[in-house]
Amino acid sequence: MKLVPFLVSMLAAALISPAALAQGKSCDELKSAIATKLDGKGVSGYVLEVVPADQDAGDKRVVGTCEGGSKKIIYSKESKPKT
Predict the structure, then answer these.
(1) Which of 6, 39, 71, 79 has the largest count of CB atoms under 10 Å?
(2) Distance CA 78, CA 75 (A)
(3) What residue numbers bound the domain in which 54 lies?
(4) 83 pLDDT above the threshold of 90
(5) Does any domain span residue 82?
(6) Burial (CB count within 10 angstroms: exposed 0-12, middle 13-18, buried 19+), residue 15
(7) What residues pair up with 46 in beta bridges, in sequence order?
(8) What order of strands is seen across the sheet that includes strand 46-52?
(9) pLDDT of residue 20
(10) At the top level of its lineage, which domain of life is listed (predicted)?
């Protein structure tokens, strides 16, 4: 299952273009664009969160920055409730 984190990081790198980062897009706009691309690739069961740039992402992946680098968008898989 080491392939999954690799694929997620490759997908994240492909989603974030240097032009998008340089423009300082609004977080809602960038988050929506990332979600559209993930959905288009058949990815499901994920959560995108906008957090301050200085907040530790922990085990989640940073997939974009927005609002001039003051915030970042982090990606994580939804955790399934334990039954």
Answers:
(1) 71
(2) 10
(3) 3-77
(4) no
(5) no
(6) buried
(7) 77
(8) 46-52, 71-77, 61-66
(9) 52
(10) Bacteria
